[in-house]
Amino acid sequence: MTYILVTNDDGVNAPGIFALAQAMRQLGTVQVIAPSKNQSATGHKKTLFQDILVGKAIWPDGTEAITIDSSPADCIALAALGLVAWPPHLVVSGINRGGNMGQDITYSGTVTAALEAAIQGVPAIAVSVADREATEPAAYTAAAEAAVHVARRVLEKGLPPFTVLNLNLPAGNDIKGIRLTRQGVRIYTDEMERKGDVVRIVGPEPGGKFEEEGTDLWAVHNGYASLTPLHLDLTAHRFLADLAAWDITL
């Protein structure tokens, strides 16, 4: 029996993870392990030498989920250390409320949970929908079904080592199709609010270079699902020769 581990960064009670777990049951047995509260934009946070509270949540359909009072990456790291049955055939992270495209992937708990799975040797998919107003499970129906289609192929074909798939979908349930894409370029317009010694980073939804066809941002902006392969090797390979010409010596 196919065994799938589902996590997210919006927290165990977010509607996106509920829709995703229900959809993944089409493919096999599903185990949910997720943050106990919202962990958006925590990036690849791994907690060492600190206590982490583990609990349980019961969803309205009776599903029991393991909860972790920490990051999505910690959810997968602890799963791999034996908190739940390991290894699964696949890890699926999401469905995130809001897109994870361009440089978002460095901040995203959704994506870094998938990257942690890849580090642990398990194929993984990150799933996000570009709609921060999606507060009901029904808003994630199309995204969940798209995730099932991608997951089915990953289970059939596998993924190369240290590689994950980043699936982003436009808002709504009317999707034109899927495009294989590269990472685009986000444009952030964050602002700082300050009240005495207390500061807060705020700002509108990030924009981006939507006109660059072939990028994740272009695809989602034009009504397509975007599927981008991501690799944990962050080496700037094309810059290596230029860097060598600097003749840095000690």
In short:
The protein has helices at 15-24, 72-83, 104-107, 109-119, 141-157, 216-221, 240-245, and strands at 3-7, 29-35, 54-58, 64-68, 90-97, 124-130, 163-170, 178-180, 186-187, 191-195, 198-202, 207-208, 225-231. It has 250 residues and is an alpha/beta fold.
Rg estimate, integer Å: 18 Å
- The total of helices stands at 7
List low-confidence stretches: none
Distance between the ends:
56 Å
β content, as a range?
25-35%
- The total count of strands amounts to 13
What is the CATH class name?
Alpha Beta
In CATH terms, what is the architecture? 3-Layer(aba) Sandwich
- Count of the separate structural domains: 1
* Basic shape: globular
Q: How is the largest sheet built, in terms of strand order?
A: 3-4-2-1-5-6-7-13-8
* CATH homologous superfamily classification: Survival protein SurE-like phosphatase/nucleotidase
